[in-house]
Design goal:
By secondary structure, the chain is α+β, with helices and mostly antiparallel strands. It is built from 5 helices and 17 strands. About 20% of the residues have low confidence.
């Protein structure tokens, strides 16, 4: 059980004990929607779904938040249409592990999770993003099915030194052992300076969407803004291939490490009620 799941599990116990007597907690029926594939049934289980009127935890306040969601399932294969449907309902995945949660812990605070997406038909590049493109016009770009190589693993090891918490162990924390096709089609965009790999970004390809999985870049080249650069390259791929949405992943309400995902035009956020709305900072 990973750290977020474990903390949410303990939180669910805390809330259920605290509020059961007040009759403010209503736990919904278990998540029971199954997809069927040629290789059998996808197994899914719900860790906790409930509703509370008020929570104050680790100094962060959530008022009138309708429900807590923490769900997961495992799937060896999904179709491009199923990927679109899952993304549109707030799901993410690392390898064959699919998950969604609307409350997370960030720097010892309980935060609302914000699934984000860019509506590509309305996307307009900003002045700062244009500068990023100009800054990197000397580099070579390669897009292809994901392939994990020693060169990418070495870059991953250097890149992960940027993190001061939740440091990943391996690229396989995010990718399956057949990342180009399991659990769905996925590509990489790699950025080279001559023969030197400076950045790599991995993303899923749906019928009408693309979704970022993981990106990494050379820490010594931070002035190039290679993370933003590879996001723009992925958006360009999606636009050229007629996709409707680009999903950059989760962010948090309030200021956090993931705020770079909020700096794109035509941005929408998932409301955890099945609807999306325009993102407002």
């Amino acid at each position: 059980m990973n750290l977020i799941v474990r903390k949410l599990f303990y939180l669910s116990l805390f809330l259920s004990r605290r509020q059961r007597s007040e009759q403010n907690l209503t736990v919904s029926q278990s998540f029971s929607h199954f997809f069927r594939q040629a290789n059998g049934r996808l197994h899914t289980r719900q860790i906790f779904v409930g509703s509370v009127a008020f929570v104050y935890f680790f100094g962060f306040m959530l008022k009138d938040f309708p429900r807590f969601i923490n769900e997961e399932f495992y799937a060896a294969q999904i179709s491009s249409q199923q990927l679109d449907a899952l993304l549109a309902d707030g799901w993410r995945h690392f390898g064959t592990h699919f998950f969604r949660y609307n409350i997370g812990f960030y720097q010892n605070e309980l935060r609302r999770v914000l699934p984000l997406r860019v509506r590509l038909a309305k996307f307009e590049i900003s002045k700062s993003q244009r500068r990023v493109l100009r800054r990197n016009q000397d580099l070579q770009i390669v897009s292809r099915p994901i392939e994990i190589t020693a060169e990418k693993e070495d870059l991953f090891e250097r890149h992960k030194q940027r993190f001061d918490h939740a440091v990943p162990d391996s690229l396989y924390d995010f990718l399956s052992f057949e990342p180009s096709k399991v659990p769905c089609e996925a590509l990489e965009v790699c950025v080279y300076e001559k023969n030197n790999l400076l950045a790599a970004s991995f993303f899923d390809v749906g019928a009408s969407s693309v979704s970022a999985v993981y990106a990494m870049f050379e820490p010594s080249e931070t002035a190039r803004s290679l993370g933003i650069f590879t996001m723009l390259l992925t958006i360009n791929y999606a636009t050229e291939n007629g996709k409707t949405f680009y999903y950059p992943g989760y962010a948090y309400e309030g200021i956090s490490f993931y705020d770079y995902k909020k700096r794109f035009s035509a941005l929408e956020e998932f409301c955890w009620n099945g609807n999306w709305q325009k993102f407002v900072e």
